[in-house]
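Workshop exercise sheet. Pairs work together: one partner reads the sequence aloud, the other fills in the structure field after running the prediction. Swap roles for the next sheet.
Pair: D.N. / O.F.
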Amino acid sequence: MGFLSLLKSKPVVLLDGAMGTELDKSGLMGRGRTNLESPDAVVEIHQAYSRCGCDALTTNTLTMNRIYIETHNVGVSVEQVNRAGVQLADRAAGCAQYILGNMSSTGQLLQPYGTYSETQFCDAFREQAKVLAEAGVDGFLIETVFDLREAVVALRACKEVSSLPAIVSIAFQTEDKGGRTMMGDTAEQCARQLTEAGADVIGANCGDLDPSQMAKVVALLRQATDRPILAQPNAGRPKLVGDRTVFDMAPGPFAEGIAECVRAGARIVGGCCGTGPEHIRAVADMIRATNPAGSTPCSRRQ
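Structure field:
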């Protein structure tokens, strides 16, 4: 059964939570580099989410495209770091849990705001998507993108190298004035353009919204597309404490916020920055309480 079939068989599909902020707790700030330098730490986080009963694990490959790697001096091979990310998630996944290849921004801006062309972005995303697909992911999760143009380019790149389903999730700064990204794109614009570009799932994650605020964006997306909607908020709005960004929403209130997102139309839910296994477990309990259903068939690896 493919990932999209899972959406037809379950009222709500549960993804995992944050990887980056969980690595931070262990003092591992290298993000993608940890796939190669501290693989056991990455597997342990995946395993903790797996035990929560989520339906899919997300690879630790968020910004591991060539442009980000080279401009941020990450010092890893695109091939090695992405392939390792899939392998580590696969080590932790249960027989019924899918693996989504995680992709995100290049960290640069497209012309005329920056110096990069859409062709350069597309080449970088195509290279990463090809490695992820060949390594065995069940779909792509393109997330935490602030520029709709970049999101469309990343989606096009995935579709050019694979027939796997692609989720595209946008980071919104506000739920007001139609829900807007840092670049001024509205939720309606995002939903309509991503639908036209062939996204299989459209959603919102990260940004500057708490779960209840994200529910308002979910409703806007729901009105503008017939595609399933994803919601992966942070554990509350980010707060600056000294020189650290803190997310301090407890698991219970977080799960209540996710319930609001589901009522607003979200079919796929999970957590972003600041969320950990305890948040995902609370959401899993909420889903079971409100949508009692049998377990997912052990079919992914058959």
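Discussion prompt: The chain has a mean pLDDT of 94. What would you look at next?
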